[in-house]
Write a structure and sequence with these properties.
By secondary structure, the protein is α+β, with helices and mostly antiparallel strands. The chain folds into 2 domains: 10-174, Jelly Rolls, CATH 2.60.120.10; 185-296, Homeodomain-like (Arc Repressor Mutant, subunit A, Orthogonal Bundle). It is built from 10 helices and 11 strands. The chain has helices spanning 117-125, 134-146, 152-168, 185-200, 208-215, 219-230, 234-252, 257-263, 269-280, 284-301, and strands spanning 10-11, 24-30, 38-39, 43-50, 54-57, 60-63, 69-72, 78-81, 93-100, 130-132, 172-174. A hairpin with a 2-residue loop joins strand 5 and strand 6. The longest helix is centred in the C-terminal third of the chain and has 19 residues, at 234-252. It is globular, with a radius of gyration of 20 Å.
């Protein structure tokens, strides 16, 4: 069973480490990432070294492989999850998390010179969340893993080196198509209840009429509010959750493709195969081979 964070994010205060360090940094270890659906005033860079099932950035949910690296802008809602898988429970997680305020070097003047144009653009793009891939991710991961062991100016220098690397790379892509639309708390609560029900009953048929009834709305009003709140229609949202869960089962279990299909709520393996290819542009077996190979490379890199 996968839990769902409420759609109204918790606003966190600046990190306590910020009082001692201009760049806050911690290594997160344990059964989960210790967070809920939340936002905060700092930029955040998260490198997942081990574990984790899914990240949710601005409402865009993505499977969470080892080596995942993102840069998130201030007040961008997000959550990192480590949900259990059938018959095995949860693997422990390990991640390096770095946070820093926009006024990193005092105010915003440090971004005004022409030489800071690329970094300024990087920060603007971070409002939609940025995912780092390829060689850039490998180089960035090496920098990030050095940061917990240093402090003060040394850590700041590493961060500036990292920002320069990301700003110059073409392997950094935006996660969210657009900033999330503002939703009133009462509306958010209705959709949150529906999303919670969906995740608890993902293996069962999910119908628009039933979800509208649970939200206390007519079908049309519910569909409009759901799309505004999540950025997806109800069928798109359900299928995205099912494929996200399927990706993890393919990577971390020995379940057959058919078993994964039914475990994730698809009516048939053929329907699962079609939806998987539509969303990820590959077959489930190709995804399993790729994820297992990537996990092997990541494990070797982060030992």
């Amino acid at each position: 069973m996968m839990a769902v964070p409420v759609l109204k994010p918790v606003l966190e205060e600046p990190s306590p480490d910020a009082a001692e360090e201009v760049v806050a940094c911690e290594v997160v270890c344990g059964g989960d990432f210790g967070c809920v659906w939340h936002c905060h005033p700092e930029f955040e860079i998260t490198l997942v070294l081990r574990g984790g099932s899914e990240r949710n950035v601005g409402g865009v949910r993505t499977p969470l492989p080892a080596g995942d690296l993102v840069l998130l802008g201030p007040r961008l809602p997000h959550d990192f999850r480590n949900d259990a898988i059938p018959g095995r429970g949860r693997d422990p997680v390990k991640a390096v998390v770095v946070q820093f305020l926009p006024s990193l070097l005092g105010g915003q003047d440090w971004l005004k010179p022409a030489s800071m144009h690329r970094v300024r653009l990087l920060f603007e793009r971070a409002d939609r969340g940025l995912e780092v891939a390829g060689v850039t991710r490998e180089r960035a991961a090496r920098i990030l893993q050095r940061m917990p062991g240093v402090h003060g100016l040394k850590r700041l220098i590493l961060l500036l080196h990292l920002l320069e690397l990301l700003a110059a790379s073409d392997e950094v892509r935006e996660i969210c198509a657009a900033p999330a639309a503002a939703i009133r708390p009462a509306q958010s609560d209705r959709i949150s209840r529906v999303c919670g029900y969906i995740e608890e009953h993902l293996r069962e048929p999910i119908y628009v009429e039933e979800m509208a009834r649970r939200a206390g709305l007519g079908r049309s009003a519910f569909s409009r509010l759901f799309k505004k709140s999540t950025g997806r229609t109800l069928p798109q949202h359900v299928n995205a959750l099912r494929i996200s869960h399927a990706v993890r089962l393919l990577a971390e279990t020995d379940m057959t493709v058919s078993q994964v299909a039914y475990e994730c709520g698809f009516v048939s393996p053929a329907h699962f195969q079609r939806e998987f290819r539509r969303q990820l542009n590959c077959t489930p077996l190709a995804s399993r081979r790729g994820l297992q190979a990537a996990d092997g490379r990541a494990s070797g890199m982060h030992k």
